[in-house]
From TrEMBL:
The keyword Transmembrane applies. Residues 28-447 form the Major facilitator superfamily (MFS) profile domain. This is MFS transporter. Its main location: membrane. It comes from Hymenobacter armeniacus. It comes from the Bacteria. It is found in: Membrane. The chain crosses the membrane at residues 24-41, 93-112, 182-202, 251-271, 291-312, 324-342, 348-369, 381-402, 422-443. The lineage of its organism: Bacteria, Pseudomonadati, Bacteroidota, Cytophagia, Cytophagales. Pfam families: MFS_1. It is a multi-pass membrane protein. Keywords: Membrane, Transmembrane, Transmembrane helix.
Length: 454
């Protein structure tokens, strides 16, 4: 017998469980990553087809803003019910239903023949795409212990960047070669490929045939003190919105999403327009700078998950680690206020600071989502995520309707569109610091929610 192996301490059941189920957990994370990739690919297509659609349908900045508002309004409305539906149907069926419906909506854009029709199509896409993040966050809460959730969230959330990277590399090429309608059809069809994989591979821990008690305990090993340990079945009633809205923790998440989600919408829907108007990029020329921004965003998403994990490994409590990481991230956004000035020196300097800001947003997103699963029982995670997602959608509508639509139309009409972007980049730089101050004034320390029936 090898003496070294004889003296080695036996592995704990939790360590063994981690070794056995680790690969499966990360396979699930990969599935959620690809769903998020497809989700953002489908919503990003229209921003890259904007030049083609402007020519065919004679749009101005106001028309495009109205279509963007239709998507955001529907997305916000969808969030009202998406989290509740996910909590009711469960992640497997709820995620599948949402993905199937938004894929149909994405492909349906190819049938549209008017500006009003695009508003309807975008509305259907928005209301169905609302299910992605409540389902993704709930899946992560089900399968990952608290200390791993920010990293898992960062990884799957980076799918939003990959979707935005794939879009400029493929959509203009498809439009140039076989027409803009095929761009909607091809990208929309990808959701059905994912759907087959999801239904084959996924099951919740509560219903997983191979999940032992030790493995289940590993997933729930570090539930915060004060939160109930949810067992193999989830038969307790779902928390009502009215009840959830009485908690400061809910409002902290709502405020954070309301102030920062619109910034990401701005990058997603207006970045190609910015590059075209400011630097004269057209068609496939826009692919590389847009892809560069979202490559940086992917790095930020995963890095944002690692940052609090590093603090936790140094002995910092999870909530404090998350709070500290989010402050660091908020400061990383601020240099975007200099994007226009730097872009005057060289376009790639503007792309760089916008990319860093977009990366910081994704790092922020990985952490703000995880605050929900930190503080709420799993049966309420989908609903709280839905409430916050609705707030983010409403924030996006407010920014577009009150700032972007009026401001961009005005400055474009007088030939000074650069001033509109100066203002928008200043708003981007300030939003996260304001959100951090308000969020952690409401919830300065870890206060897990225990619902009345627990």
């Amino acid at each position: 017998m090898n003496p070294t192996s004889a003296q080695a301490p036996p592995e704990s059941p939790l360590a063994t469980a981690n070794a056995v189920m680790g690969k499966f957990r990360w396979t699930i994370c990969a599935l959620v990553f690809f769903a998020t990739t497809i989700n953002y690919l489908d919503r990003a297509v229209i921003s890259l087809l904007k030049p083609y659609l402007e020519t065919e349908f004679h749009w101005n900045a106001g028309d495009y803003a109205n279509i963007e508002i239709a998507f955001k309004l529907a997305y916000a409305v969808g969030m009202v019910g998406a989290g509740r539906i996910i909590d009711k149907l469960g992640t497997k069926l709820g995620y599948a239903l949402s993905t199937a419906l938004w894929s149909v909506a994405a492909m349906g854009h190819a049938l549209v023949s008017s500006t009003f029709g695009f508003g309807i199509a975008r509305g259907f896409l928005g209301i169905t795409e609302a299910g992605n993040f409540p389902a993704a966050i709930k899946t992560t809460a089900e399968w990952f212990p608290q200390r791993e959730r920010a990293l898992a969230t960062g990884i799957f959330n980076s799918g939003s960047n990959v979707g935005a990277i794939v879009a400029p590399l493929t959509v203009p090429l498809i439009a140039e070669t076989i027409g803009w309608k095929w761009a909607f059809l091809i990208t929309g069809a990808l959701g059905f490929v994912w759907l087959v994989l999801w239904m084959y591979f996924y099951e919740t821990p509560a219903k997983h045939a191979r999940l032992s008690k030790a493995e289940f305990d590993y997933i729930n090993a570090d539930i915060p003190v004060g939160l109930p340990e949810e067992g193999v079945t989830e038969e307790k009633p779902k928390a009502s919105w009215g009840k959830l809205l009485t908690f400061r923790q809910t409002w902290a998440f709502v405020i954070g999403k309301f102030l920062t989600d619109p910034i990401w919408w701005f990058y997603l829907f207006w970045l190609p327009d910015f590059l075209g108007k400011q630097y004269g990029l057209k068609g496939t020329d826009i692919a590389l700078p847009v892809a560069a921004v979202y490559i940086l965003s992917s790095i930020g998403s995963v890095g944002g998950g690692y940052l609090p994990l590093g603090f936790i490994r140094r002995g910092m409590p999870a909530f404090q680690a998350r709070k500290t990481a989010m402050l660091v991230i908020a400061f990383c956004v601020f240099p975007i206020v200099f994007a226009q000035w730097l872009g005057g020196l060289n376009m790639w300097l503007a792309v760089l600071v916008i990319g860093i800001a977009a990366a910081a947003h994704q790092a922020w997103s990985a952490n703000i989502f995880t605050t929900v699963s930190d503080m709420f029982p799993k049966r309420a995670v989908g609903s709280v995520t839905g409430i916050g997602g609705m707030a983010g959608g409403l924030g996006g509508i407010a920014l577009t309707a009150l700032v972007q639509k009026r401001m961009f139309v005005h400055f474009e009409s007088i030939g000074q569109i650069d001033k509109a972007y100066y203002i928008m980049f200043f708003i981007c730089g300030a939003a996260y610091l304001l959100a951090w101050v308000l969020m952690f004034t409401l919830v300065p320390r870890m206060e897990p929610i225990k619902l009345d029936d627990e």
